[in-house]
Write a structure and sequence with these properties.
Layout: E1 2-9, H1 17-26, E2 34-40, E3 43-49, E4 63-65, E5 68-76, H2 79-85, H3 95-106, E6 116-124, E7 129-134, E8 143-147, E9 150-154, H4 171-179, E10 194-196, E11 201-205, E12 210-214, H5 229-246, E13 253-257, H6 262-274, E14 280-286, H7 296-305, E15 311-315, H8 342-354, E16 357-361, H9 366-370, H10 377-382, H11 386-400, H12 404-416, H13 428-437, H14 439-442, H15 447-457, H16 463-471, E17 475-477, H17 483-491, E18 498-499, E19 502-503, H18 505-510, H19 517-520, H20 529-543, H21 551-554, H22 560-571, H23 578-594
Parallel strand pairs: 13-14, 13-16, 14-15, 16-17
Antiparallel strand pairs: 1-3, 1-9, 2-3, 4-5, 5-6, 6-7, 7-11, 8-9, 8-10, 11-12, 18-19
Helix pairs in contact: 4-13, 4-23, 5-6, 5-17, 8-16, 11-12, 20-22, 22-23
Length: 596
């Protein structure tokens, strides 16, 4: 995988080669790459390949069959099915070739046959038509820009648009970023001139128009009901095995970022059980000074259970947020909340790199796809299961150290009045405008299901991690964000995900005997809040002047004095509504770097 970009002159005027050269120069942050390019008439295409997958292309050029040409950033996970469906003899066919043959047979309907992480563009030189598509969950990005009579596209905004010295921001994008607590929407960008092809969508570009069609979205009405619990376990285990196995496919070693939590250890256990031919190692962030964040006891139990010798600990006490501010993160085309923790992210990947990894697996999004949220207890009440409701409410209260009355008031009564979602950092009028832009999710009446839908919808916040990993020649992959797994978990009954206030019920059943009991039975997570407090204290002298007159306040999005007060309180160890204010902090710092 890697990156793609290109230009199509819709007026069919031959493309100036300098346009393509400029794009290529903007993509120089990719290392250990192979670059392919194609230019003919009104079209120019570039593909940057990180050489992660096993299958090699037959010659050093853009892939084409007949009049069709393709550039792709992809990994296809259902190759065997497609090879059989397309009656292909060569089992070593590359993923882009497989996509192209699928398109030649099914045209735009090909996206319904593809499973995996992908973004690609196909040029039909005979009909002068460009076809672009993005995978179901939006794991790989695709940005585009209309410029006079040209359609420009790229997986990195910098290839098609200047990202510094900006005077005109897309304030809807900025507001949505804050409304969703640091999770950007999937159709806009910070720049009004640049748009994003939404996840689960394709575009058809002809000399006269640009058409965008949504081919997939998560169906909140679909239900999967089995007669007995074991059927759910078997189905989940089958999908989970496949999700892990396919994400280990490649021509190099695999590093697994393994904490002491249930998600990443499950991926490691499944990877070991599958006996994949690729070498496996683990990378774990541990803490010598901050004992409340250290999970070595869980990690060590896991390593001992599998007699794993190829493991690596990254002592992370000194990787506080905003370290070396203002030079705390790499150049980014978009804001990303994880940029605050760049030091830990970068050094984790650097350790994987030094150990020869070409692929990194994470437990990211396990929380999101299993959908834990306290509003789940309302589902029992809506189904008139009063005994189960009381039981779950009591257990939830005990787990959160709340009174039963407080739990019922905030997680039940307020939901019926639609008052359970707290206000955001946004000014009230801006908050209300954002709510109106996301009306689709408001159609889901059950607050527990709506929160689960939101978690999945907002789970692809991976820009910084992709930027860091691919700059080191590593591809990061996330088994829990397999579309088949996501669809299954969203459609099964609540009790298979949360029961007796215990989360990830199905995962725990599936991993029985594969994980130490200490991990299977644990609840809660280790806290790394001390890295936040330490970072604000250590970098405050340089940081505080930047927050006195925030651009976000000048744009009419937030109350600047309230913002500064909240960050100041964080510095002193008082953390409330951290997700949204830290998202605002990163967005503000990013805006200051990119504003003229």
């Amino acid at each position: 995988m890697g990156a793609i970009c290109g230009v199509y002159n819709q007026n069919l005027v031959p493309l100036n080669p300098e346009e393509l050269n400029r794009m290529s120069m903007k993509m120089n942050h990719y290392k250990e790459k192979t670059e392919y390019s194609f230019r003919r008439g009104p079209i120019g295409l570039i593909e940057i390949n990180l050489n992660v997958l096993l299958e090699k292309r037959k010659d050093n050029k853009i892939i084409n069959f007949e009049e069709y040409y393709i550039v792709a950033d992809c990994r296809i996970d259902n190759k065997k099915n497609l090879i059989r469906e397309l009656e292909i003899i060569d089992s070593q066919i590359s993923d882009p070739e497989l996509i192209l043959l699928s398109y030649m047979k099914w045209k735009e309907r090909c996206v319904h046959y593809l499973i995996g992480d992908f973004t690609f563009t196909i040029w039909n030189s005979k009909e002068n038509v460009l076809f672009c598509a993005r995978d179901h969950l939006g794991m790989r990005p695709l940005f585009y820009k209309l410029k006079k009579n040209s359609f420009l596209f790229a997986t990195d905004i910098r290839a098609i648009h200047n990202t510094f010295g900006i005077t005109n921001w897309d304030t809807d994008y900025l507001a949505d970023f804050l409304y969703k607590k640091g999770m950007p929407n999937d159709f806009d960008t910070p720049y009004p001139e640049v748009k994003q092809l939404p996840k689960g969508s394709y575009a058809i570009i002809t000399p006269t128009k640009v058409s965008i069609c949504r081919y997939w979205k998560l169906d909140y009405k679909k239900k999967i009901i089995y007669k007995d619990d074991m059927a759910y376990v078997e189905h989940f285990t089958e999908i989970f095995k496949e999700a892990v196995y396919q994400r280990m496919r490649g021509n190099g070693a695999v590093s697994i970022f393994m904490s002491g939590g249930l998600d990443s250890t499950s991926i490691y256990a499944q990877a070991k059980k599958l006996q994949h031919p690729n070498t496996i190692s683990t990378i774990s962030c541990v803490f010598d000074e901050y004992k409340e964040a250290d999970e070595r006891n869980y990690i060590t139990a896991m390593l001992e259970m599998y007699k794993e010798n190829n493991y690596h600990f990254l002592v992370s006490d000194n990787y506080w947020i905003l370290k070396n501010f203002p030079n705390y993160a790499p150049e980014m085309d978009e804001p990303n909340r994880n940029a605050l923790s760049y030091g830990m992210v970068y050094n984790s990947y650097l350790m994987a790199k030094k150990n020869g990894a070409k692929i990194a697996l994470t437990g990211y999004a396990g929380d999101q796809v299993f959908g834990y949220n306290p509003y789940y207890i309302t589902s029992y009440l809506r189904r008139l299961q009063f005994g189960d409701f009381i039981n779950e409410a009591k257990l939830l209260s005990k787990q959160n150290n709340d009174t039963l009355l407080w739990t019922v008031k905030n997680y039940v009564l307020k939901t019926f009045k639609q008052q359970h979602e707290p206000p955001t950092i946004l000014l009230p009028n801006i908050h209300n405008m954002c709510q109106e832009r996301f009306q689709e999710r408001n159609q889901i009446k059950d607050p527990g299901i709506r929160a689960h839908y939101d978690y999945i919808d907002q789970s692809q916040n991976l820009y910084l991690r992709r930027l860091v990993s691919e700059s080191l020649g590593i591809e990061e992959r996330h088994p829990f964000l397999d579309v088949r797994l996501v669809e299954f978990l969203f459609s099964i009954p609540l009790e298979q995900k949360i029961k007796n206030a215990e989360t990830k019920v199905l995962l725990r059943k599936s991993m029985k005997n594969l994980l130490p009991s200490t991990i299977l039975n644990q609840s809660g997570k280790a806290s790394t809040n001390m890295l936040l407090f330490q970072g604000l204290r250590n970098e405050w002298k340089q940081l505080q002047p930047k927050l006195k007159s925030p651009i976000l306040a000048d744009l009419g999005l937030i109350d600047g004095s309230k913002f500064l007060d909240k960050i100041t309180r964080y510095r002193h160890g008082e953390l409330t509504r951290g997700m949204e204010y830290l998202s605002a902090l990163q967005l503000e710092l990013w805006l200051q770097e990119h504003t003229k």
